[in-house]
Amino acid sequence: MSELSQLPLLFWVVAPLTIVFAYTVFGMSGFGSTVIAIPILANWLPLTFLVPLMALGDLVAAVFVGGTNRQHVSGAELKRLLPFMILGIALGVTVLVSFPQEPLKIGLAFFAMAVGLHSILNPSPKGTISPWWCVPAGTVAGILAAVFGAGGPVNVAYLAGRLRDKGEIRSTVSVIISVSATLRTTFYALAGLVLKAGLLAAFAMAVPFAWAGIAIGTRIHIGLSNEQMRRAVGVVLVASGAVLLARILRG
């Protein structure tokens, strides 16, 4: 519990709001909770604590969102992406436990801003991409998922180029995230990052806020267009990455 007991009051105000909003986005889109929450919460907690924590949360959330819309899942795209994502996760866990935190946080800040800008400037991808893009997409998504807990945007970028129905994209990426979260949680546990009293306590405290966010996001999803959703998430990602980068540079 030492990671939590020393945190300032500001954290206890910002963290619940961040979790609610992050999982509202997840309920809307089937992804995005981690890439939104971690750049904000990394101002107080290390990635080796946050990434496993959000993996547990994403596992529960993805099972709920994907399970309730199973008929919309694209089995063909799952078969293409998952083998390469597993390879990427194995590589990414090695990076997470071996590299210093500061460069990883800087990389996360720039990654969040880049994904956000892409979502704002290109909210409606045109055309259908080759299925062979599953190789780099799956591998890179796995690495980013393991290091930052943020493979969702890459998976969605690939699926948006292959699928056109927003419900099909949301359900498929939710299943991908549930598999990713299961694998990451297993790898993190083997690396000694999960079975800690502080992390499990934080997960228990976060569950009610995450559940509220999913409920809100699911309602919003029904009336929201793909373009509106991608632009809104993009704005939040740019802001989150900028705040994290400014804090790092300020020291």
Output mean pLDDT.
82
State the order of secondary-structure elements, H for helix, E for strand: HHHHHHHHHHH
Low-confidence stretches: none
Number of domains: 1
| Total of helices | 11
Largest sheet: none
Radius of gyration: 17 Å
Percent of residues in helices comes to over 70%
Question: Shape from CA axes?
Answer: globular
Please render the helix and strand layout as text.
Layout: H1 2-5, H2 9-29, H3 33-41, H4 47-67, H5 75-98, H6 101-121, H7 134-148, H8 152-162, H9 166-190, H10 197-223, H11 226-250
Helix pairs in contact: 2-3, 2-10, 3-4, 3-11, 4-9, 4-10, 5-7, 5-9, 6-11, 7-8, 8-9
Outline the structure in words.
The protein is mainly alpha-helical and 251 residues long. The chain has one domain (2-250). Helix content is 81%, strand content 0%. Helix 5 packs parallel to helix 9 (166-190). The model has no long low-confidence stretch (mean pLDDT 82).
Features:
single chain, 251 residues, mainly alpha, 81% helix
Task: Summarize this structure briefly.
The chain is an all-alpha fold. It contains eleven helices and no strands. It has one domain (2-250).
